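Predict the holo structure. Ligand: uridine-5'-diphosphate.
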Amino acid sequence: NNKVTILGIPFDNMTRKEFLSVLYKRMEDKEKTFLVTANPEIVMFAKSNEDYFKLLLEADFIAPDGIGVVRAAKTLNTPIKERVPGFELMLGLLELANMEGKRVYFIGAKEDVLNLTIENVKKEWPHIEIAGYHHGYFDHDDPEKIQMVKEANADIVLVAFGFPRQEEWIKKYLNEVEHGIAVGVGGSFDVISG
Ligand code: UDP
């Protein structure tokens, strides 16, 4: 698996399809996985924030989200295969979870947005096992919330707090669990909610 480094961020040079097949295998092998979909905003933020930069280096996979990342790679003469938008990668994971009856936890967004998101998920992907859901407006340092999600025993945890909050929370969460894929999905629930 080759990497392309842009401003110190090691992107995985995989297509969306390749990401999904690797992630599926990790799920089957019960290997816990920290996935980041890094767009140019995230890359620029990491450049000026050392703690966040270090946090990104702890990710198992970093997807090249955004045409700016693809262009930068090309300019550096280390082209990447394709742009992998975070939203589409998330849809791919939901598709996979639907086909395989996997457990998905949804955490983040405002309560009404989240409720609509869950309704739409049930309609669109009826075979997903909804492991649980919780809005994103709580003290993100609260260990009880981590326990709550941990007890739901999810295969996939979608964290929609926006960056850098979502990645900070994912790191703490993954320290406490044995398996599962966790990914920050930014404002995606606002989109799924319609
Ligand atoms: N959000 C949240 N908790 C917070 C702050 C934000 O759940 O403490 C949610 C917000 O409701 C939205 C998502 O995080 O659904 C993304 O927020 P924002 O647009 O601020 O971040 P960005 O998309 O720019 O990363």
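Residues 108-110, 136-137, 160-163, 165, 186-187, 189-190 surround uridine-5'-diphosphate (CB under 6 Å). The mean pLDDT is 97.
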